[in-house]
Amino acid sequence: MSLYQVEGLGVGVVDRSLVHDVSFALEPGECVALIGESGSGKTLTGFAPFGLVDGVRLTGSVRLSGQELIGTTEVKLRETRARDVGFAFQQPLTALTAHRTVAQHLVESGAAHDRQVLRALLADVGLMGDGLADVLRRYPHQLSGGQRQRVMIACAIARAPKLLIADEPTSALDAESRAGVRALLRRLRKTRNLGVLLVSHDLAEVAQDADQVVVLHQGRAVETGPTRDVIARPQSVYARALLGVGGAESALPIRREGGTAKLRRERRNTHTPLLSAHDLHVSYRQPGWRGHRLKAVDHVSLEITQGEAVALVGASGSGKSTLARAIARLGPCDSGKVLWRGELLPPRHKLRTSQRQHIQPVFQDPVASLDPRWRVCDVVAEPLRAFAPDLTTAERDARVLAALEAVELGPDYTERRPQTLSGGQAQRVALARALVSNPEMLMLDEATSALDALTARAIVALFMRLRTERGLAILMITHDEPLARSLCNRIIRLEAGRIISTDS
Amino acid sequence: MLRLIATRLVIAIPTLFAVITLTFIMIRLAPGSPFDGERPLDAPTRAALDAAYGINRPLLVQFGDYLSHIARFDFGPSMVYRDFSVTQLVVQGLPVSLTLGGVALLLASMAGIASAVVATRWSGGWPDAALGALATILTALPSFVSAPLLVLLFALTLGWLPVGGWGGVDHIVLPGVALALPVAGAIHKLLRAALADQMRGDNIRTARARGLTPFTIITRHALRPALIPVASYLAPAAAGLLTGAVVIETIFALPGLGRYFVQGALNRDYPLVMAVVILYAALIILFNLLADLAYGWLDPRIRG
């Protein structure tokens, strides 16, 4: 008998089915990974059987230590959650209640209210040692990301369950804490004979930890088997794409370096700069009575020609977003001037409507940057109310549909609201909103970094297509240099508010 | 935290000064005088009264004189309630108002918080709908309607409680409840919305994953941060309740401070109005400070 056995699991909401016929089994001490992009149903498959997803209908069979979970009462499921299974979630900062201390979190999770026990538990997840003497009394926000995730894992194993379900436990962490948490999970599997169900979007990363993988695509298990076999001989087109191996390019558009020569040629043909910024300087006042001014952008000049894609690359705090916002006249600017086709762009509050139309932004977190109360058609139509107030309703609707079509979304999206969209779909809506007023330049502020790898690739391909089709100039802000290299003609590196190098 | 308290106390001085100055100017600009009655006084009497209370002097002199007096906590004599100083009047009325307001605040907080928690526990069910509707009615119902209804039922029909007046504990119940009802309704509305917001958080899923009961999840994980908007609302509301509720005091014939607000202003009893306004402003400043301290307890991230 397996520790955890899923057979023919289906998850559906009122009118449609989201997960179909997924089966796998997990033995004690084993690690099974559920792999898929956002919207693939991997989180549903992981959590819905335990009653952690509201409003879904479950079919099939899910047994934990022989006990059937589907069809049991909420009270029984609550007992199961408390006793037999532990959970670790993706964002340990938001997933741990902010006003409860580490000790309170542990005790609530079932650890005995005893200093010695709590300390032993923390030591077991590597949270003891120098500078951590008072860790029990700390609040989650007083810990680092890696430490928080360790606290969450300590909570999950407080009642010594046989199964741990971890949803992207490392994806919100930096590389070092990521390795630490993965090592911790490996150790717990060995020392406690803990079965781990790992939910992830990154097949390559889990490959080293998982014994078995289940690759999910659109709610179906497209590939199931020992990790070694799946990695070495992926059978489905989708798994190949996830691994980025040969033959995948045809299935999913991925841009390689080959196109840059052509881009460079295009650039030589146009001489008038579309936009030129001279000697921009932006500083922020630091908080306090007489805060010093912090130079965010330090006398930077740059030019962008029509149809050119320029990337601003730099670490966080290098001033890349501030610079781009100053150029697009969306943020503050102390001095310097910005010319649009040779015409001076005034500061933000003096911009004429027609001048605002030239540059349209797309931001990092697509779901957060859309108003949750608005329908997609309202979001996309909003710029038209300002830039083209004379349009009739029919004309406006036509423009909205055209913009949605340009980002590969059908007319059935118009009535939906942001919460019902996946990250990739929401970013397409944000892009449609930017395109609807026919701008000549797009400002992409980390527009793909909140998306998983596959969705990001599809969005990048969309940017590329729009750039060639419409001759759009692109100013892209990113910390991802390979991405910038594949999409842009020119890469400008920033450090401490200054340009340190330019590649073309 | 000490720094916050110290900063607020320092800022309180210019704030109070501004309040005093503005009130002084406004009440003096209002037509009429404390000695205007049904029948106009003859000129010599009038001049003698004005001279006795010093209101014939230039305004600036009077203002300077007033400031120097209140700096010594001397709020002057009442110009209408002869033989009483303003301090005596306030000391008589304040305990009544503080007791009534305190009872009302306590009742309103307990009822509002309990009903919002219950509504959230059965979110979307009939208790949620019923309590929501009740809260709307209570918020909308003016006290001059609800208070007589309460009197009719509990004092006149059932005879359980006195109709009015001030004395034992039973005298506080009806006015306290009448004063608390709209506040409880407002707390319910604010807290219900904030709880709904909190219950959408990722931390709630973690709490459910630990197998906690819905009630524990709400009270332990969602309630504290959800109380932040309630604290923002209650700070100024508490200052209002504690310094007197004119309508309730009138209906129940209570010797509180509220009537001094209204009568003082109508009678142009300059020192009385000034004293009541200063008390109210000081309480507003105090309660806003308490609310700011409460935020830090409700959400430790605010403490930094």
Give the helix level of chain A as a range of percent. Answer: 25-40%
CATH fold call of the largest domain in chain B: MetI-like fold
Q: How many structural domains can be distinguished in the coordinates of chain B? A: 2
- CATH superfamily assignment of the largest domain in chain A? P-loop containing nucleotide triphosphate hydrolases
Strand content of chain B: under 5%
Total strands of chain A:
20
Identify low-pLDDT runs of chain B: none
Please report which band the strand proportion of chain A falls in: under 5%, 5-15%, 15-25%, 25-35%, 35-45% or over 45%: 25-35%
CATH T-level fold name of the largest domain in chain A: Rossmann fold
Which chains make the largest contact?
A: A-B, 27 and 20 residues
Mean pLDDT of chain B: 89
Q: Figure out the total of helices of chain A.
A: 19
- CATH architecture of the largest domain in chain B, please? Orthogonal Bundle
Number of strands of chain B: 0
Largest sheet of chain B: none
What does this protein look like?
The complex is a heterodimer of chains A (504) and B (304). Chain A has helices spanning 42-47, 74-83, 92-95, 102-108, 115-124, 145-156, 175-192, 203-206, 227-232, 237-243, 248-251, 260-269, 320-327, 353-356, 376-387, 393-406, 423-435, 453-470, 481-487, and strands spanning 4-12, 17-26, 31-35, 57-64, 67-68, 85-88, 163-167, 195-200, 212-217, 220-226, 273-285, 293-305, 309-313, 335-340, 343-345, 359-362, 441-445, 473-478, 490-495, 498-503. Chain A is an alpha/beta fold and 504 residues long. Chain A has a six-stranded mixed beta sheet with strand order 6-7-8-3-9-10. A six-stranded mixed beta sheet of chain A has the order 16-17-18-13-19-20, sandwiched between helices. Chain A is globular and about 75 Å long. Chain B is mostly helical and 304 residues long. Chain B has two domains: 2-70, no CATH class; 93-303, MetI-like fold. Chain B is 76% helix and 0% strand. The N and C termini of chain B lie close together (11 Å). The A-B interface holds A 50-52, 78-83, 86-87, 89, 91, 94-100, 108-110, 139, 141, 152, 155 and B 201-203, 205-213, 220-221, 224-225, 298-301.
